[in-house]
Amino acid sequence: MYAVYRASQIRFEGELVLEEAYDFSRKFLQDWLEGDEHLDKWVISKNLPHEVGLEMPWYATLPRVEAAYYLQHYGGYANVWFAKTLYKMPDIQNDEYLELARLDFDRCQSQHLI
């Protein structure tokens, strides 16, 4: 549903199907966050994409800022499981990827400080 919400943000005026998809998915995600369904311990998201996505529209996000949010919430997360699957996600849990993302973010941030 989050993907529908994000995709429906890229629409032109008069695209009724996308406008309806946007309204429906936004209401669904807001109701979902207000309920207790998102507190399942096996859900990887920890509400981050939905909260960030509902607060910041897609066109206003910066990839590096969004990456910083993910690093803050997932960095060093020892036992990451994706949704309700029964297997670990090695690419999400990979410490080398996390370190590379941290180094990339730090390098980018240091360029802006100059």
Automatic annotation (TrEMBL):
Gene3D superfamilies, sorted: Terpene synthase, N-terminal domain
Swiss-Prot/TrEMBL GO biological process terms: gibberellin biosynthetic process
Domain of life, per lineage: Eukaryota
Cellular-component GO terms for this entry: chloroplast
A molecular function (GO) term: terpene synthase activity
InterPro entries listed in its UniProt record: Terpene_synth_N_sf, Terpene_synthase-like, Terpenoid_cyclase/PrenylTrfase
Transmembrane portions of the chain: none
Protein name: Uncharacterized protein
Organism name: Salvia splendens
